[in-house]
Amino acid sequence: MQTIVDFVSAIVKSMSPLEMFGAVTGLLAVYLTVRNNIWNWFWGTLSVIAYGWIFWEAKLYSNMGLQLLYFLPMQAYGWWSWKYGGNAAQEELTISRLPVSGWIIGLAFSAAFALGWGRAMAGIGASLPYADALVTGLSLVGQYLQARRMVENWHFWVMVNIVSTFYLFPMQKLYVTTGLYGIFLILAVMGLVEWRKIWLNQQAALTDSSG
User: Fold this and answer.
1) How do residues 116-166 score in pLDDT, each as one tens digit?
2) Of the candidates 47, 96, 48, which has an alpha carbon nearest to the alpha carbon of residue 68?
3) Is 27 within the bounds of a domain?
4) Does a structural domain hold residue 91?
């Protein structure tokens, strides 16, 4: 037990205040998303700003741009979509599923983005440009699906977290962030299970009401 405590203590001491802030707010945001709680967008905003700066310093320019140019405005859109984007009456958005055509579009976009943007980032000396761009492409899709409250957002976050945890961040020696994304991976799997359960309950309720 003492060995585990010492290990955790060493990790905490190695974190900069900004990285610690980004990690804590990011974990809180993802946990609240797993719980289908709209306050995830508030804490997500704080984490996005912190990690935008962290990725800039690490020369992970795709991830930096992702945080500040996409994730940041998407926090506001996501909050509005969850609260008022359900229908013309501006009712709360409920959890839904992505059709097969959406899967094809999402995966094709992610692959094309990884190749095109990765090549552009390689030209300006970015670190691990293609892996960074792949994570960016998958994250663009995942964040949009999350804002639209679709179960499949978690599939894309699982892919993002696998690449980030086992390749991208370890290669940059961002070990604390690597550990954080490992936790995100676990939470993404939990989110997938939880949201699918909520969706099934919604469908059961609709069947009962129509019957």
Assistant:
1) 999 998 998 888 999 989 998 999 999 999 999 999 999 999 999 999 999
2) 48
3) yes
4) no
pTM: 0.86
**At 121, which amino acid appears?**
M
Burial class of 147 by CB neighbour count within 10 A (0 to 12, 13 to 18, 19+) = buried
Give the structural domain span for 102.
Answer: 2-85+96-210
Burial classification of residue 88, based on how many CB atoms lie within 10 Å of its CB (0-12 exposed, 13-18 middle, 19 or more buried): exposed
Its sign, for the CA torsion 66, 69, 72, 76, is negative
CB neighbours of residue 82 within 10 Å: 21
pLDDT digits (tens, 9 = 90+) for 8-47: 565 566 667 888 898 899 999 999 999 999 999 999 999 9
Count up the domains in the chain and report the number: 1
In a domain, 17, yes or no: yes
Of 52, 59, 45, 54, nearest in space to 176 by CA: 54
Q: Judge contact between 145 and 137, C-beta under 8 A.
A: no
Q: What angle do CA 34, 36, 42 make, to 5 degrees?
A: 90
Whether 90 maps to a domain, the answer reads no
What contacts 106, CB < 8 A, 6 or more positions away?
Answer: 98, 141, 145, 152, 156
